[in-house]
């Protein structure tokens, strides 16, 4: 089975993909590993879309796999190869907290966080977090969607 997991930044897409790939014993590929050219500092130069797609296709191979990340507007050739699409929705305050933690871990004191994510909690609301999962299988088994919501 070829699975594509997508959602907003810090929604848990890569984490779920890694765990699922391990559980299924299949290859995991994250589009973020191919989106940017290797630079210092990182994330300053986008890799051309055609090159990204080619590199990802080579890495995925012809066996079962889990692909994670967002390849919207440039990765149609990748998405047409999937059997199941999983879209993760995670509350914005949760994603902002994760983003701040990730940036601090990656860059430490080299970046300054002007506004903490907890400040947004009052704007977007917070409350008990629950998880619901919806899975629907299409008639063809291609382009199927799954909603995973983390509130």
From TrEMBL:
It comes from the Bacteria. Coiled coil: none annotated. Gene3D superfamilies: P-loop containing nucleotide triphosphate hydrolases (3.40.50.300). Signal peptide: none annotated. Residues 131-151 are annotated as: Disordered. SUPFAM superfamilies: P-loop containing nucleoside triphosphate hydrolases. PANTHER family: DNA TOPOLOGY MODULATION PROTEIN FLAR-RELATED PROTEIN, YALI0E33011P. This is Adenylate kinase. It comes from Pseudomonas psychrophila.
């Amino acid at each position: 089975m070829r699975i594509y997991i997508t959602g907003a930044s810090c929604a848990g897409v890569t984490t779920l993909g890694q765990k699922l790939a391990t559980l299924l014993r299949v290859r995991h590929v994250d589009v973020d590993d191919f989106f940017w050219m290797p630079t210092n500092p990182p994330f300053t130069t986008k890799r051309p879309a055609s090159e990204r797609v080619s590199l990802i296709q080579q890495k995925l191979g012809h066996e079962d796999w889990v692909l994670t990340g967002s390849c919207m507007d440039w990765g149609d050739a990748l998405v047409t190869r999937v059997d199941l699409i999983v879209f993760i929705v995670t509350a914005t305050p949760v994603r902002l907290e994760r983003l701040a933690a990730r940036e601090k871990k990656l860059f430490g004191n080299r970046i300054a966080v002007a506004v903490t994510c907890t400040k947004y909690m009052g704007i977007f609301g917070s409350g008990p977090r629950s998880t619901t999962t919806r899975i629907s299988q299409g008639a063809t088994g291609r382009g199927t969607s799954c909603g995973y919501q983390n509130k």
